[in-house]
Amino acid sequence: MDDGLQTETGGPNYTVQFGAALFVAAVVMAAAGHFGGVLGLLAGAIVVGGTGTVLGRRVDSEHEDVVSSVEAVTDEPDPAVTDGGIRELDTAFEKRVTENRQLRTQLDELESELEDTRHRNERIESQTEELQDAMQLCAAGQLTHRIDSDEESPIDVADDFNEMMDELEGTMRHLKDFIALVVSSSNEVMSGTEEVSEASDEISATIQEIAEGATVQSERLQSVNGEMENLSSSIEEIASLSDEVATLSERTTEVGRQGQKAAKTAIDGLNEMEDGSAEAVEAIETLQTEMEAIDELVEFISEVARETNMLALNANIEATRSDGDGSGEGFAAVATEVKELAAKSKDAAENIEKRIEDIHEQTEVATNTVRETEDRVAEHTDSVENALEALGEIAEYAEETNHGVQEMHMAADEQAKSTQQVVALVEETATISDQTSDLAEDVTASAEEQTAALTDVSDSTKQLAENANWLSDTLDMYKARQDVPAMDRQSPTELAAGSPSEGQASTAGGDVASASSTTEATPETSSRSETTSSSPETAGSEEFTFGNTTETAGLPTKFQTGMATGDDSFDTGRRAATMAFDDLGTDRVDFCQVFCSPEYEYADVLEGIRDVIGSDAKLIGASSSGEFTEKAVSDGTVTVSLVASDTIKFFTGLGTDLSDGVAGAVNEAVETLPASVEGYPHLSAINLHDGLAGISDQIAVVTQRNLGHDVSFAGGSAGDDLAMEATHVFHDDTIASDSVVIGLMASKEPVTITVDHGHSPISEPMTVTKAEGGTVLEIDGKPAFEAWREAVESYLAGTDRQVDFDAVENESMELLGLLTEFEFGIEEGHGAISDGYKIRWPGLRLSKEGPLDFPVGVPEGTVVRVMHSPADEQIVSARDTATAAIQDAPGNVAGSFIYDCACRSIILGENFDEAVNAMDEELGVPFSGFETYGELCMERGQMSGYHNTTSVVMLLPE
User: Fold this and answer.
1) φ, ψ for residue 758 (rounded to 5)?
2) Residue 273 near residue 447 (C-beta atoms within 8 A)
3) 222: exposed, middle or buried (Cβ count in 10 Å: 0-12, 13-18, 19+)
4) pLDDT digit string, tens, across residues 439-452
5) 669 near 740, Cβ under 8 Å?
């Protein structure tokens, strides 16, 4: 019997061999596909095809041998063949035919599988080519490119590739933000270096001026020295002349004394002469008086004589009359009168005689006096002559003294000139000294500025080094992911043990484990990582271990809210806290978050809250621009959230002086926070900060760096009811502006965070071509406002709505509404939220002139689009954010913190409560929120950072 026929005695069993060959081929193909990828699948297909071909030929050969044997038996029967042998042959033939049919069926199936394999290979080749094209595009920088999913392909790499690119794009965004921070630090270093260089140049120039001044001062001092020598010579000459003048003065003084005596004697004599002359004058005056009396007497006598003559005449007349009538009465009367005149004349004569005697006596007195005066003048003539001689000598000495004085005057003039020159030189030297002093002060000031600049450079360099370390850590983390493909992140211990990490979750809250940070930490690893600036002594001084970490029993998370308004700040805070505390269902409060309108006194509000919750609860909060809870939407309120939990532990920190440096403030806030908490593997955080600082984007990046790559956080910028004057944050009982407060939560289950906005692009991509911080001056080379206006007008032209921009006034609510409705979106790619855009509000300055002002920096080169967000889309966005949060939550939810932008309130106006109600319908748990000046959301895989006009929802697990 032919070897190809199977006999009962045992020939080769080709069915078994064929089946075994197919099995081996399938195993080879599967192994090749698993280990070799596409090339392995191709090799497996070739092996299966070759095996099928060989087996087919073998079956055909066996079949031909059987047919030949049958034909031989039929044509030439063997006498030895009996009926039994024929029956056996027939049985064997039928069996072989059956086997051949089975082999044919298997061959058909194998061919069909081969055809399927070829088809699959074609799909794989097609997807491989598409993957190669995508990889080339990605290598060329087009990280937004994605592959369409192919359901017919046996290996659909599209989802994995797209997911990988989403995470890569998110990482690139994160690195871009970080690089912006590094660039900022580098610019600060460069600026500081330039300042130091300028200060050095100024110091060098000033020192040169000081040196020149010192040289001039030295020359002037040398001149002063020469003049002082001349002055010294003049002084010596004056001293010599002074000696001579002193001698002359002594002689003059002596002669003067003698002349003084002579003059005194002459003066005394003259005084006596003056007295005698006075007596003579008096005598003469007396004589004159007497003469005047005599004159009067003479005049009287003359008058008497005249009257006598008249009487005599009358007497003659009367005598004539008497002779005529014989009467003598008239004559008698005249005689009487004559008699009387004679008596008077007698008296006058006697008086004259007496006067003459007096004159004689006075004349003798005057004569004697004059004689005595002459004698006295004669006596004092010698004294006067002596005085004249002494005065002559004095005049001679005075002349000599005058000569010496003149010489002294000349020397004094020379000395004065020298002194003037000295004074001038001294003044010039003083001026130079003043200039030198001023220059020295300038040098000191420049040195201080240089020291300050060097300090800034040192700080910036330190910050730059920390950023570089953080970048290195980030790159190392992604390198570790590459080293362990298709595996979840594991701790070093778990990797060494080969066991998967425990408690990993894919929710937005994410894990806190990484290649450099284990999920559960021991007390030795509870401090902040070395990438932060906290000192080991400070950060590692506490061990965050709470009871029996293996226990799962305890108080589940309790979450309640309260809201109140009123005129008394203390009472309002107390009533809001009481409302939440009464619903909490426990006497204990572990954590409190406060949102407060600036209408209240913050300190009194916090005191009222503390009166309810006690002093042990951790407290953070912020001033706001509107508040809401699941119960109400309002503004001008105090809103309180209270949490009590054994499944979440809370830690808080405050950082101050944001304007002096973001890194320093955030470092200060996180330095006492734990890097991990034993038994509570999931870390998340709340970040509240000054809303007017203008650096919220940097705060987000630095917070992520300091907390770690896998710590998700949410939060917002504090508000002040849109006054834009001052915003504040609260930490325990401290109220601070220009500050940041961070609340860290360590939980047994991950916290869920979602974020969304309701904006859609309405313009083509535009590039910021000129910007200064948050002020964008030009977009695509045009004034920023003009570029924005053109985009909005172009969009509105395709709608039924019309806006007359020329009629819109600066500082108007209409302009505020337009800038809020039509904001900007920064392209972030597929991995970012809401179709890859991060919203930026341009309404910080309500002016149509030139630039647009944003609350944070928008660097030159940023690609933006003008966005549009109708009111209904804002409500939909709020609902979507809440829905996504509930869907992502790993279990039951106790409550929620919501950070929503004040811009949404501007867009919705009175309908803002509809957005809150939409979130309430989806969440179904207590929540509190406030209207911010910007929102923070940093999620693992998105790393989206700082937003405007966005809802951020944080869910706390029960």
Assistant:
1) -110, 40
2) no
3) exposed
4) 666 666 666 666 66
5) yes
Q: What are phi and psi of 560, to 5 degrees?
A: -145, 160
Sequence-distant (≥ 6) Cβ neighbours of residue 628 within 8 angstroms: 634, 639, 898, 900, 913, 916, 928, 929, 930, 931
- Provide DSSP, 8-37: TTT---HHHHHHHHHHHHHHHHHHHHHHHH
Q: φ, ψ for residue 835 (rounded to 5)?
A: 65, 25
Contact residues for 819 (Cβ-Cβ < 8 A; gap 6+) = 841, 842, 843, 846, 852
Q: How far apart are CA 677 and CA 708, in angstroms?
A: 14
Burial degree of 435 (CB within 10 A; 0-12, 13-18, 19+): middle
Cα gap 179→177, rounded to integer Å:
5
* 596 Cα distance to chain centroid: 24
Q: What is the mean pLDDT of residues 43-63?
A: 63
Distances from the Cα of 315 to the Cα of 310, 331, 343, angstroms: 8, 5, 18
Tens-digit pLDDT profile for residues 773-784? 889 999 999 999
Distance CA(930)–CA(719), nearest Å, equals: 9
Q: Catalogue the long-range contacts made by 290-298 (C-beta closer than 8 Å, 24 or more residues apart).
A: 290/355, 290/358, 290/359, 290/362, 291/359, 293/351, 293/355, 294/352, 294/355, 294/356, 294/359, 297/348, 297/351, 297/352, 297/355, 298/352
The residues, ordered by sequence, that sit 6+ positions from 173 with a Cβ below 8 Å of its Cβ are 828, 829, 831, 832, 943, 944, 945
Question: For residues 179 and 62, what is the distance between their CA atoms, to the nearest angstrom?
Answer: 74
Distance of CA 954 to the CA centre of its chain: 29
Residues 6+ apart with CB under 8 A from 875: 758, 908, 911, 914, 915, 918
Measured between alpha carbons, how far is 820 from 798 in angstroms, rounded to an integer?
20
Give the helix/strand (H/E) hosting 74.
Answer: helix 14-75
Structure tokens given for 843: 């309404």
Strand 852-853 and strand 760-761: the pairing is unpaired
For 859-873, give one letter per residue: b (16+ CB within 10 A) or e.
eeebebbbbbbebeb
Phi and psi angles of residue 571, each rounded to the nearest 5 degrees, phi first = -65, -40
- Cα 120 to chain centroid distance, Å, stands at 62
SS3 state of residue 897: strand
Q: Return phi, psi of residue 843, to 5°.
A: -100, 25
Greatest extent of the chain over all pairs of C-alpha atoms, in Å: 270
Listed range (483-497, 568-582, 768-782, 903-917) with the worst mean pLDDT: 483-497
CB 946 within 8 A of CB 933: no
Instruction: Encode pLDDT of 845-881 as tens digits.
Output: 889 988 999 988 888 888 999 999 888 898 999 999 9
Closest CA to 636 of 713, 566, 556: 566
| Residue type (1 letter), 424 | A
Q: What is the pLDDT of residues 244-257, one digit of tens each?
A: 666 766 666 676 66
The arithmetic mean of pLDDT across residues 489-493, rounded, is 35
Confidence band, pLDDT 50/70/90 cuts, at residue 181: low
Q: Give the pTM.
A: 0.54
Amino acid at 72: A
Identity of the amino acid at 265? T
Q: CA angle 883-887-889, nearest 5°?
A: 115
Helix (H) or strand (E) holding 635: none
Q: Decide: helix, strand or coil at residue 957.
A: strand
Given the structure tokens 């790393």, which residue do they identify?
943
Q: What's 843's DSSP letter? A: B
| CA distances for 71 relative to 64, 91, 896, angstroms | 10, 16, 90
CB-count burial class (<10 Å; 0-12, 13-18, 19+) for 417: middle
Q: Token pair for residue 888?
A: 């992502």
How far is the C-alpha of 579 from the C-alpha of 589, rounded, in Å?
Answer: 13
